[in-house]
Design a protein that fits this description.
Structural class of chain A: mainly alpha
Number of helices of chain A: 15
Helix content of chain B: 10-25%
Helix content of chain A: over 70%
Number of domains of chain B: 2
Oligomer: heterodimer
Shape of chain B: elongated
Shape of chain A: globular
Distance between the termini of chain A: 37 Å
Largest sheet of chain A: none
Order of helices and strands of chain B: EEEHEEEHHHEHEHEEHHEEEEEEEEEEEE
Largest sheet of chain B: 7 strands, antiparallel
Largest interface: A-B, 18 and 31 residues
Order of helices and strands of chain A: HHHHHHHHHHHHHHH
Number of strands of chain A: 0
Radius of gyration of chain A: 23 Å
CATH topology of the largest domain in chain B: Rossmann fold
Number of helices of chain B: 8
CATH superfamily of the largest domain in chain B: P-loop containing nucleotide triphosphate hydrolases
Strand content of chain A: under 5%
Strand content of chain B: 25-35%
CATH architecture of the largest domain in chain B: 3-Layer(aba) Sandwich
Chain lengths: 277, 356
């Protein structure tokens, strides 16, 4: 007779196998294909495609955009999570919903909104032109679009955790004479540091990979406003498959490194908690 | 240090959590705020701590109105309900926190912090736990850390919000005595919030009983028991039987029990509170009451649960009574509240006439 809590062998082995198979087909296979295609014609071709000036410019631009957007969203995300979870104010629910807008709106639309606002024909277009400020088809536009699209990552990772942790420790800190800033630095932030790192890394992965919104505001000027995903598209459309896959592989690699870093950090945080039990 | 609340009102939306509360604690006093959940006692404590602010009224600590002063500027020691230890800091760092966050001018040196934290951990008798993390501690140990942490800022006033709720019953009694001893040794003024009447009566010099945002009575434990100000207080303190009846011509008629008197109360509905020890049950040939259960009492004799038409009561009996047998009860002492709120203490065995 089987124990009530024991699943049938089919359930115990069948489900995990199915899940692994799905993951392999949907996630690993495309990734493997990218790397195989990139290296199909040998290392030299792949390296040459990456070392080409336009490709290098795209890599540099992608890293630059990420280097600006990620810190901005880290600070913005912490501030939003802190405001929402540790304070009460009118309109709090609305703010929580707003944080999710970038997730629920297609990135293409986000890009279009920025064109509408800052483009030559946009609301602020004439004003910006008079002052010779270029936002659309330039770095500021790329950063704006990326910041918008990746804003929720940090906030969304922090909010559930901070909500669960409550305000008790902050209140205790206040009764012990700590200022708001001291409480934030010594109590709130250390309590969420691992979640924060995870959120930052996710935000970074997405910032480097963002296509839709960036595509709209970029203008696709080779060597100037093309980020890596856009560069891949151009190469692909021009039937330069080896180059397209080589740059894709590099982009995928950056994402994988980020993911690996996140996994290592999570392992580290688990170990610390485990050793305390 | 004296603590005084004058006309403090706090509303949350339409609900008044505190209504016109006036209360004072003398220097060195141990005051308990006792009441059911939702009676406003935690709100009152938070207002004393500076974690919440009154809509009206004054909060005087050492004579200064601090009603608008936030927690960090009050220097009041607070032990919160679940201790709220800093989870990412060791016990040592938890206790040192209040010293480390001081402005540089008044911050003690590292050596001095070491010395003071060491002394506090000795005081709460857990010097060996200094390098542990909060999640490695038992409930009792956490509570000691929370106390040491609160005392590190040398507060003249200590606030305790249900500090024993997380402890198991055996530890609780011992820790209570220990905390009271600490209060006396350190020379604190303390305010304890609790819903446990036994805890309040055992620890506090005076107990303020709260109900629906008001203080219904504030007195020494003995006085509260002997002269409760209202049926609510009488019902909330200690285990007691609550009986509804009627006063007619100076006699209290209790359905199923009998009548007692004479009493100096006006005619009308009345409510009597009788402690189990004052309800003496004996076997009867017939009667409106039946024995529901009878078990030996650790204090001697038997504890009897009896059932009348309208109520389930607890009394005592020198003999063992059979389950289901008819019985009658005699009230040895009671506190009776009349319809207009008048209260009489009634104690006259011979004047009770059982029903039946």
């Amino acid at each position: 007779m089987r124990h009530a809590a024991t699943d049938s062998p089919l359930m115990r082995w069948g489900l995990p196998v199915l899940a692994l198979a799905l993951a392999a087909v949907l996630l690993l296979l495309p990734l493997a294909a990218v790397f195989t295609e990139a290296l199909r014609r040998g290392w030299e071709v792949a390296v040459a495609a990456i070392a080409e000036p336009d490709a290098l410019a795209a890599i540099r631009l992608t890293l630059l955009v990420a280097a600006i957007s990620v810190p901005v969203n880290t600070i913005g995300g912490i501030a939003a999570a802190w405001a929402v979870t540790k304070h009460d104010f009118p309109g709090k629910r609305v703010l929580v919903t707003w944080i999710e807008i970038p997730f629920s709106v297609s990135p293409v639309i986000s890009g279009l909104v920025f064109v509408l606002l800052f483009g030559a024909q946009g609301y602020f277009g004439p004003w910006l032109r008079e002052r010779d400020i270029q936002i659309i088809f330039a770095l500021p536009g790329l950063v704006l679009a990326t910041v918008f699209v990746t804003f929720p990552f940090v906030a969304r990772t922090l909010i559930p955790l901070m909500q669960e942790q409550g305000r008790d420790e902050e209140e205790a800190a206040a009764t012990l004479g700590a200022s708001g800033w001291q409480t934030f630095l010594r109590v709130t932030l250390p309590n969420v540091k691992w979640a924060l790192l995870a959120g930052v890394l996710l935000c970074n992965a997405r910032a480097m990979g963002e296509f839709g919104a960036v595509s709209v505001v970029s203008g696709h000027i080779r060597g100037q406003t093309n980020t890596m995903p856009l560069h891949v598209e151009i190469l692909y459309n021009e039937y330069m498959f080896a180059g397209a896959f080589a740059v894709s592989a590099l982009l995928a690699l950056l994402g994988l490194v980020t993911l690996a870093a996140k996994a290592v950090l999570e392992r580290l945080s688990d170990r610390r908690l485990g050793s305390k039990a | 240090m004296t603590v005084e609340l004058r006309g403090v009102t706090r509303r949350f939306g339409d609900i008044a959590a505190l209504q016109d509360v006036t209360l004072a604690a003398a220097p060195g006093e141990f005051l308990a705020l006792l009441g059911p959940s939702g009676s406003g006692k935690t709100t009152l404590l938070r207002i004393l701590a500076g974690l919440d602010f009154p809509d009206e009224g004054e909060v005087l600590i050492a004579g200064r109105d601090v009603a608008r002063v936030p927690a960090r500027e009050r220097g009041v020691g607070v032990v919160l309900q679940h201790y709220a230890l800093f989870r990412h800091m060791t016990v040592f760092e938890n206790v040192a926190f209040g010293l480390r966050v001081r402005p540089r001018r008044t911050r003690p040196s590292e050596d001095e912090i070491m010395r003071r934290v060491g002394r506090l951990l000795d005081l709460v008798q857990i010097p060996e736990l200094s390098e542990r993390w909060p999640d490695q501690l038992s409930g009792g140990q956490r509570q000691r850390v929370a106390l040491a942490r609160a005392l590190a800022i040398e507060p003249p006033l200590l606030l305790l919000d249900e500090p024993f709720a997380a402890l198991d019953a055996l530890v609780r009694k011992e820790v209570r005595r220990w905390v009271r001893g600490l209060h006396d040794r350190v020379g604190l003024t303390s305010v304890l919030v609790t819903h446990d009447q036994e805890e309040a009566m055992e620890m506090a010099d005076r107990v303020a009983v709260m109900d629906q945002g008001r203080i219904v009575q504030c007195a020494e434990p003995d006085e509260l028991l002997a002269q409760p100000a209202s049926p609510f207080v009488a019902g909330f303190l200690g285990e007691t039987n609550r009986l509804r009846g009627e006063v007619r011509a100076g006699w209290l008629h209790l359905p199923g029990i009998g009548r007692a008197g004479p009493l100096d109360l006006a005619d009308g509905e009345a409510e009597a509170f009788v402690r189990p020890g004052d309800l003496q049950v004996r076997a009867a040939t017939e009667g409106a009451a039946r024995v529901r259960a009878c078990r030996p009492s650790p204090a001697g004799g038997n504890r009897v649960l009896l059932e009348t038409d309208s109520a389930l009561l607890e009394g005592v009996s020198p003999e063992r009574l059979d389950r289901g047998s008819p019985c009658e009860a005699v009230i040895a002492a009671a506190i009776v509240f009349g319809a207009n709120g008048d209260r009489v203490l009634f104690s006259a065995v011979q004047n009770t006439v059982p029903a039946g």
